[in-house]
């Protein structure tokens, strides 16, 4: 290196430019930035709770229209009457299990995980607001919380506050799409559509209503977890689109750390997760990791993630149904539903647009697992939870794949860590432009 040249930090090189860019962005933010209208429907699965934390930290990029409690084949509340149900081929009845009919399934009596996440957001909001004035107020987010169709798996027989909200959004006169994220089942969305159909199908304006809703609603589901897409939505609303995702996306599902390249595996490690996520403020304490001592529902035999130091056989001896291999304490656990909104994030890739090659959630749906962006497991017959466990253990033992090209994993993880840094820390005002520049670089923002 020439003695007349020295290696400068990004702060010193870009500080004046960053000041100008941030100033210009601040002036143009309200008018120029596109904020997609988003409704989140979610059941109380622990990886949904993690996806919600990331979502709230990126809530500057969305117009959050709803945060709705939902049910699925994995979680449902019951109606409190003692009525018991069982749906064929669910986790409680497949591969030799016979645990239902049940009055509820894997649902805590005082379930309030959405409210809890928003309460944590309220604690850190003053710091978040320092960094970006587009963070919605806690009061605004609280006003969007609703209870959807949570009583039973796939039940769309009655309206709910959540389905009423979705119905109103789809029928309003505001142009543009409404993205309906389904992290659990789609029954609340299905009920909203069914209510519209029941109200208008016999009226002269039905054709116009059908076209309006079909253009406006864009589904972004994490699978069909209660069969309502297959049994109601698609047969009755075949023109409703789904947001493409899957191929080449950032792996964030359960067991993602075993499926990524050696280069990317650091972002799922205990050390990286602790340093950048789980030790950082109120949201870090809420974020679920392996061996954190927590359990979403007390006594849930499918949820052993809070335990550490046990082998699969030892967990089975304790009465757990072990369906994915236990991991070291503190490792990344999962955000299997985050992919539903990754392409809506304002990172410059415009991955939600059909004419682009995709973004952090990948593009299209193909051989990769649509809910995770990960390599598919080999197609073999599974007849027990032990078979499922062995299949994942075999997948973990395979040679790691090369990093994808382009590789969005570092940007997605570092961007999340930078957003997390906003919540517990107050960056001194003179350093804010440089800090924002660093954050934008981590998120893959383009300035030119």
Give a verbal description of the structure.
With 448 residues, the chain is α/β, with parallel strands linked by helices. The chain has two domains: 208 residues, Ribonucleoside hydrolase-like (Inosine-uridine Nucleoside N-ribohydrolase, Chain A, Alpha-Beta Complex); 140 residues, no CATH class. Helix content is 37%, strand content 6%. The chain has a six-stranded parallel β-sheet. Strand 1, helix 2 and strand 2 form a beta-alpha-beta unit. Helix 1 crosses helix 15, helix 5 packs across helix 6 and helix 14 runs antiparallel to helix 15. It is globular, with a radius of gyration of 22 Å. The N terminus and C terminus are likely disordered.
Proportion in β-strands? 5-15%
Return the CATH architecture of the largest domain.
Alpha-Beta Complex
Distance, first to last CA: 28 Å
- What's the domain count? 2
Integer average pLDDT: 86
Sheet with most strands: 6 strands, parallel
Radius of gyration: 22 Å
Classify the helix fraction into a percent range. 25-40%
Q: Which segments are poorly predicted (pLDDT under 50) over 5 or more consecutive residues?
A: 1-31, 366-374, 427-432, 443-448
Instruction: Kindly state the number of beta strands.
Output: 6
Shape: globular
């Amino acid at each position: 290196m020439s003695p007349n040249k020295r290696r400068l930090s990004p702060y010193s090189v870009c500080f004046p430019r960053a000041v100008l860019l941030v100033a210009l962005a601040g002036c143009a933010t309200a008018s120029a930035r596109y904020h997609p209208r988003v409704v989140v429907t979610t059941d109380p699965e622990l990886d949904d709770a993690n996806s919600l934390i990331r979502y709230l930290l990126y809530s500057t990029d969305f117009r959050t229209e709803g945060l709705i409690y939902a049910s699925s084949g994995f979680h449902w509340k019951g109606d409190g009457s003692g009525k018991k149900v069982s749906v064929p081929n669910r986790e409680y009845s497949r591969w030799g299990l016979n645990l239902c009919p049940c009055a509820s399934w894997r649902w805590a009596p005082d379930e309030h995980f959405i409210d809890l996440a928003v309460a944590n957001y309220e604690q850190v909001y003053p710091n978040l607001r320092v960094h970006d004035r587009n963070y919605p107020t806690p009061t605004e987010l609280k006003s969007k919380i609703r209870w959807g169709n949570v009583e039973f798996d796939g039940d769309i027989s009655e309206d709910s506050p959540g389905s009423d909200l979705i119905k109103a959004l789809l029928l309003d006169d505001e142009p543009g799409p409404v993205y309906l994220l389904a992290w659990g089942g789609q029954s609340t969305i299905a009920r909203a559509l069914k209510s519209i159909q029941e109200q208008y199908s016999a009226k002269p304006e039905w054709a116009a209503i059908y076209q309006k809703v079909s253009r406006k609603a864009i589904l972004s589901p994490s699978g069909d977890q209660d069969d309502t897409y297959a049994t109601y939505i698609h047969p009755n609303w075949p023109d409703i689109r789904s947001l493409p995702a899957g191929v080449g996306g950032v792996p964030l599902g359960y067991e993602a750390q075993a499926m990524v390249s050696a280069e990317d595996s650091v972002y799922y490690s205990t050390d990286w997760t602790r340093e950048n996520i789980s030790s950082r403020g109120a949201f870090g304490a809420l974020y679920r990791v392996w061996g954190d001592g927590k359990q979403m529902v007390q006594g849930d035999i499918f949820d052993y993630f809070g335990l550490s130091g046990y082998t699969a056989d030892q967990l089975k001896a304790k009465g757990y149904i072990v369906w994915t291999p236990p991991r070291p304490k503190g490792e990344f656990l999962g955000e299997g539903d985050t992919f539903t909104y990754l392409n809506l994030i304002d990172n410059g890739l415009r991955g939600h647009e059909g004419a682009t090659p995709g973004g952090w959630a990948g593009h299209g749906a193909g051989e990769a697992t649509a809910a995770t962006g990960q390599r598919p497991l080999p197609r073999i017959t599974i007849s027990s939870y032990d078979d499922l466990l062995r299949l994942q253990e075999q997948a973990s033992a395979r040679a790691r794949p090369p990093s994808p090209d382009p590789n969005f994993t570092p940007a997605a993880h570092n961007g999340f860590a930078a957003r997390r840094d906003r919540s517990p820390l107050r960056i001194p005002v003179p350093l804010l432009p440089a800090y924002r520049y660093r954050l934008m670089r981590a998120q893959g923002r383009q300035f030119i």
